[in-house]
Amino acid sequence: MNDVRPTLEAVAARAGVSRATVSRVVNGGLNVRAAVQERVREAIAELGYVPNQAARTLVTRRTGAVAVVIAEPESRVFSDPFFAQQLRGISRALSAADTQLVLLYVEDREDYGRIGRFLGGGHVDGALMFSLHSDDPLPGIAAAADLPVVYGGRPGWEGEDSLGGDPLFVDTDNRAGARLAVRHLLDRGRHRIAHIAGPLDQTSAVDRLRGYRDELPADAPHDLVAEGDFTPAGGERAMTELLTRAPHLDAVFAASDLMATGALRTLQLHDRRVPDDVAVVGYDDLEPATWTHPPLTTVHQDVEEMGRMMATLLLTRIGAGTDDPPAPVITPPLLVIRESA
Amino acid sequence: MNDVRPTLEAVAARAGVSRATVSRVVNGGLNVRAAVQERVREAIAELGYVPNQAARTLVTRRTGAVAVVIAEPESRVFSDPFFAQQLRGISRALSAADTQLVLLYVEDREDYGRIGRFLGGGHVDGALMFSLHSDDPLPGIAAAADLPVVYGGRPGWEGEDSLGGDPLFVDTDNRAGARLAVRHLLDRGRHRIAHIAGPLDQTSAVDRLRGYRDELPADAPHDLVAEGDFTPAGGERAMTELLTRAPHLDAVFAASDLMATGALRTLQLHDRRVPDDVAVVGYDDLEPATWTHPPLTTVHQDVEEMGRMMATLLLTRIGAGTDDPPAPVITPPLLVIRESA
DNA sequence: CGATGATTTGAGAGCGCTCTCAAGCTCGTT
DNA sequence: AACGAGCTTGAGAGCGCTCTCAAATCATCG
């Protein structure tokens, strides 16, 4: 192991060419004679040359890395399959473009400082942000750092404003998805349909609640809503509350599969049969939906693909420029019928 | 938003001092008069100056980031609470030292190339590596890149060799832990004790198997071992196999809690009562151990603390130098008795 | 065969920062 | 008052790379 890494200079000397020529070869070899390229590549191999990333970043102003910021504590990030799935799509797209991914999550409020410093410090070329809450400082931080961002899920603000134009995001049509779910329950003859909402400071939760209300007939009870937090435990709590407030409910639409699993557990604890006594519909169509007893009827969204799209959007925004101006993407939801409803 | 970021030069001009002085203030302000420091800090604030990381890295040869490499596919990384917990400890220690964490996992064999390029590319000052398998190329890659590494779990090789001296690692005493588990089962009067091992190309799995064999009395059956893969599904498969081979077993020691949960499910499916018919002991004492019915008796290891130790070890190895030569750490296991055995 | 244009190559100027070294100060001491 | 011992400060070199620009080389053709 040579303790000191060879530089461009060393390779150039070895190959008998100039630094500039080696640089050209390293970066694709445009306009370099084949014979020379060959010689340079040999020198690179012999010396075990690896470009110094810092030097390169210093002059190109590109780091080749993007941040993925999730506004949730680490425990949620690593336990919610939604993030895992999304992250999978993102990694795929990113590593195809030889771009590194730096994962950041928000453990507590003071982390915003650290994250702000990181995003502003020029460590990354852009950011993907998830799970923003309505008063989230992250968009402001990114704007202040002049950093391109793509949001996962429609952010709370839209259009021209202080944060610099239209936000770029990838989302599913949550409202339509919720309507699909409720429609299905109505079609199955259910009337007392409750809703376990997500945290109402997130647009996805709000949109799903709105869709639920849209579809409910005028004569149906409209107040059977409890707010959860997208976790199984939150689903349990919400279900317990609903059961107390409306013991005779005959269906539940949960705003996420994870909350639905919690609801399922609670219903079983209270001796309600699913779907006979109470029908349950989830949202997301992630793995847990297939594990439960009975398997969950749920609203599908292609989370991995959405992750991929986010990454692609960000890459084009960062990359060449405006030859294909990226625009927000909204994917259609799809009802998947299993056994819980 | 100023499109162009202010440089040290700009701050220096504004504060009426030299670049060097501003640099000193930014880096702690040693040997700079209080009045001057004040003036410089004002200039920094007014201009919104943020140091350019690349430039700094170029001269200091420190990136302020470390990689965490997990030799498992992303789906495992994000579903196994062991990694989540470990990662939590690591993040804590790292962000306390203002060091960034870059997470890398190995999706398939060809990822090794990408990871090698990344580790060799000078993007990070060191690496934390987990879940290595016996023939893993990662240690070689790190050695080739001359990168300080701390391993999670004793690596398969030890002592002086081609990979450059003693590997630094943090582990728990797996063998002793396994003995604790088996001892407990024996004390409860169990005799036909099976073992669901982890993948035997990992030292932790081998050591636990060894501990299990150590403690088994000479007249007990020694062949009730099935190999799992540390996942719930693997636990199910192994349990099914064991039940076929030895329908009368009265206890199972699983090498991880996750496999134990799978075993539990399978046992219930086969109408075995736990712990009455079959006692079950897990390993790790992570969250799932408390969720199961019945809650798992298991061997505790402080995974988060171990993560923190790994990070600390790496930081000292990277940092100052040899004033406190870091050494491998082996933590003691602890039996936690709940209801499954 | 010289002119024209395209292609290939090298020299050299930075990118923004740290760090060494020497010069300029401030003091306490004699 | 003079002098050496710290403190503070600034000048300037240099980290390894990219990129512009001009020089050199090659190809093409009237």
On the 0-100 scale, what is the average pLDDT of chain A? 91
Largest sheet of chain A, described in full?
A: 6 strands, parallel
Shape of chain A: elongated
User: Low-confidence spans of chain A: pLDDT under 50, at least 5 residues?
Assistant: none
Terminal-residue CA separation of chain A: 64 Å
Please name the two chains that share the biggest interface, counting residues whose Cβ lies under 8 Å from a Cβ on the partner chain. Answer: A-B, 42 and 42 residues
Computed structural class of chain A: alpha/beta
SSE string of chain A? HHHHEHHEHEHEEHEHEHEHEHEHEE
The number of distinct β-strands of chain A equals 12
Q: What is the multimeric organization of the chains shown? A: homodimer
Query: What name is given to the CATH topology of the largest domain in chain A?
Result: Rossmann fold
**Rg of chain A, please?**
25 Å
Can you tell me the number of structural domains of chain A?
3
Strand content of chain A: 15-25%
Q: Percent range for helical residues of chain A? A: 40-55%
Strand order of the largest sheet of chain A: 2-1-3-4-5-11
The CATH homologous superfamily of the largest domain in chain A? Response regulator
Tally of helical runs of chain A: 14
Question: Could you explain how this protein is built, in words?
Answer:
The structure is a homodimer of 341-residue chains. Chain A is of the alpha/beta class and 341 residues long. The first copy, chain A, folds into three domains: 8-51, lambda repressor-like DNA-binding domains (434 Repressor (Amino-terminal Domain), Orthogonal Bundle); 65-172 and 304-331, 3-Layer(aba) Sandwich (Rossmann fold), CATH 3.40.50.2300; 174-301, Response regulator (Rossmann fold, 3-Layer(aba) Sandwich). Chain A has helices spanning 8-15, 19-26, 34-47, 53-60, 74-77, 81-96, 111-120, 138-144, 174-187, 203-215, 232-245, 257-269, 288-291, 303-318; strands at 65-70, 100-105, 126-130, 149-152, 168-172, 193-197, 225-227, 251-254, 279-284, 297-300, 329-331, 334-336. In chain A, strands 2-1-3-4-5-11 form a six-stranded parallel beta sheet, with helices on both faces. Chain A has a six-stranded mixed beta sheet with strand order 7-6-8-9-10-12, with helices on both faces. In chain A, α1 (8-15) packs across α2 (19-26), α6 crosses α14 and α9 runs parallel beside α10. Chain A is elongated. At the A-B interface, α4, α6, β2 and α7 of A face α4, α6, β2 and α7 of B. Chain A binds a DNA duplex (30 and 30 nucleotides) through α2 and α4.
